Amino acid sequence: MKKIITLSSDFGVQSQGVGIMESVAYEINPEAHVIHLMHGLPSFDLLYAARTMETLNYVQIGFHVCVADPGVGTKRKPIIIETGRGDFLIGPDNGVLIPATRFLEGIKKVVEITNEKYMRKPVSLIFHGRDIFTPAAAYLSKEAGIEEFGDDINIKDLVKGPYEEAIIGKNEIRAKIISINKFGSLHLNIMHSSWDKFDIKLNDIVKVNFNNNSIKIPYATTFGDVEMRKPLIMKDDYDRVEVALNQDSFEKKYKVKIGDDIVIKK
Amino acid sequence: MKKIITLSSDFGVQSQGVGIMESVAYEINPEAHVIHLMHGLPSFDLLYAARTMETLNYVQIGFHVCVADPGVGTKRKPIIIETGRGDFLIGPDNGVLIPATRFLEGIKKVVEITNEKYMRKPVSLIFHGRDIFTPAAAYLSKEAGIEEFGDDINIKDLVKGPYEEAIIGKNEIRAKIISINKFGSLHLNIMHSSWDKFDIKLNDIVKVNFNNNSIKIPYATTFGDVEMRKPLIMKDDYDRVEVALNQDSFEKKYKVKIGDDIVIKK
Amino acid sequence: MKKIITLSSDFGVQSQGVGIMESVAYEINPEAHVIHLMHGLPSFDLLYAARTMETLNYVQIGFHVCVADPGVGTKRKPIIIETGRGDFLIGPDNGVLIPATRFLEGIKKVVEITNEKYMRKPVSLIFHGRDIFTPAAAYLSKEAGIEEFGDDINIKDLVKGPYEEAIIGKNEIRAKIISINKFGSLHLNIMHSSWDKFDIKLNDIVKVNFNNNSIKIPYATTFGDVEMRKPLIMKDDYDRVEVALNQDSFEKKYKVKIGDDIVIKK
């Protein structure tokens, strides 16, 4: 098996930072393999970033860097989280790594990165992705033990994630939009298993309330189950529940945005 | 030689699906090498996607995945096409793979992918790129024979490509716009060899009719042959004929779009 | 150490050219490793492209291709520049490679690429990135000596870079905007060492004049040092000076663009 280092950021294609982080990783560990998981994170949006890190559930166990930090340059701690599954999540202590741990068998250990031996020098105050996070991933993938990077942090002292799981009631789910993809489909903070507990049958209609809208939507398995431009609610590809229009943009039609609350009623 | 797996999709930089498909490929075959051919395919545009797959002509023989399927979730068959050149094209049976085969020495064999042994489980109803197409490419690149994936499909039963080749007459070519690049230049369904048969000399002027426009354009070898912002028609870099403005956008100036018909007259 | 080939272009995600160049490199040298440094260069913008190549300072010594050439198809020479540090910069003789050499210990040797043995055939008149530049990088990374590619070019005969270094006076710096990132922050043609010579202390206020604006900005170390949406001037991550707003876009607020002049006064 290759040792996989993934990189995620809000750099888009408009930054050389993506390629430079890859180069830094290979300088430290030429045997690792770098995958650019996603560099199109919206700027300053912790929800979207956290949701993207959740999808590591579908990537092999590895060393995963997230550079999404609206508070960069402030006193955020750089941290490494070891997951129950065996991954190492590396990024700022701003909550962005927390939701992913719910999918990766929880948190086993957390340390603050303080050991300068494992940093690229000089350390930029801004680009921790290049000088702290990526080097940490590369050294971890090569030889270093997590305990060598710095002192333990107590899990309860970590900054909370930018969203909790939806609240599943008997007749109602109180959820939140945690990402919107390029097709304008929404993803909610509802796991497949939570949705199953809500106990709706395929083709049942639910009422979906958000902002000043209330619309009726069938629970379907996939886009093709509804007519062109009609709404549907379904299990998405990454263990979350999705609200979408068939071949049209729900986001544009209903002017919703990430962070909006959504209530689903039977 | 490395075994090359290429991935193309309409995911843009705004999706982790790109990195996840790469990870899936390496889990199955760590010795292969994944190239992201192009993830900026416009959503729901089969012409553009098919045209992009044509350019595999310029990539070494390999295992090529295309995830562009407006009908995802409907009863499209997932297929593998073995080309005359020796490539394996993997994607939906919606025509998107067909034009490429005209450049890759035709179709040798086609099978429907039904063998679950070669799928990632559980198989999503939506994200066949991750769960069916990419695993197929990886297993083919490793060891599996095409016949192990499922039954043969008769070539004449395949869904037709989204465009045919242009009709080359004595004094007129009836063509179609099959892609438009970020510079606003148009690519037509005319191969270089077909253009040569039309028998126009360099610097000759042709009449180009489309929508309600009729403009005169010189046949040139490259942008620098005409003045700034002037139109030209030329052979492009990928065995097609291109209509462009020198350092300006033909698309914006003339409001054309993919799929529009274009008639070229001597 | 891996042999690193980097590719930069203005192709964005909307072009298969990116993947095809990677494939061409691996066909020639399967042992090299290709890094996509940056493909989001704005079209036809030599300043931005040149500035991006400067950041190779943060990449290991390697073989670096830049495909950014508004004059493609004209009589630009394809060249290889060997830097003092030991890199090979490959691209058009249009000045785009020059500023980077100021960061890479200067220019040691330059040749014009004329030896067809090291080109992909047939050579497109347009896509030199695929047929000339990338093959040159791959052959150089494998075995070929720079002198085998063609005759020497005298350094003073090279096309000048698209910008010089800022002029540092006693009380005033005359600078230029050489790039603007996706967050709307500006980068100026002032190296960290030049800024140090200007001798401003942290938290000092400078007057920044551009177009018809004159604003007062504190010299800070990072975003968090100023209030939300307030301006700051600081050392950036790539050895240049940056002007930005904390979590807002300086570019949009003040309508500046790449190439604009900026004067900084004590």
Description of the molecule:
The structure is a homotrimer of 266-residue chains. In chain A, strands 7, 8, 9, 10, 11, 12, 13 and 14 form an eight-stranded antiparallel β-sheet that branches. A six-stranded mixed β-sheet of chain A has the order 2-1-3-5-4-6, sandwiched between helices. Chain A has helices spanning 17-28, 46-54, 98-103, 128-142, 192-198, 250-254, and strands at residues 4-9, 33-38, 63-67, 78-83, 88-92, 107-112, 167-168, 172-180, 186-191, 205-210, 213-218, 231-235, 240-245, 261-265. The model of chain A has no long low-confidence stretch (mean pLDDT 94). The first copy, chain A, contains six helices and 14 strands. Chain A is elongated and about 60 Å long. Chains A and C meet through helix 1 of A and strand 1 and strand 2 of C.
Shape of chain A: elongated
β-strand number of chain A = 14
**How many discrete structural domains of chain A?**
2
Regions of chain A with pLDDT < 50 over 5+ consecutive residues?
none
Query: Which CATH architecture of the largest domain in chain A is right?
Result: 3-Layer(aba) Sandwich
What fraction strand of chain A?
25-35%
How many H/I helical runs of chain A? 6
CATH superfamily of the largest domain in chain A: S-adenosyl-l-methionine hydroxide adenosyltransferase, N-terminal
Q: Which percent range fits the helix content of chain A?
A: 10-25%
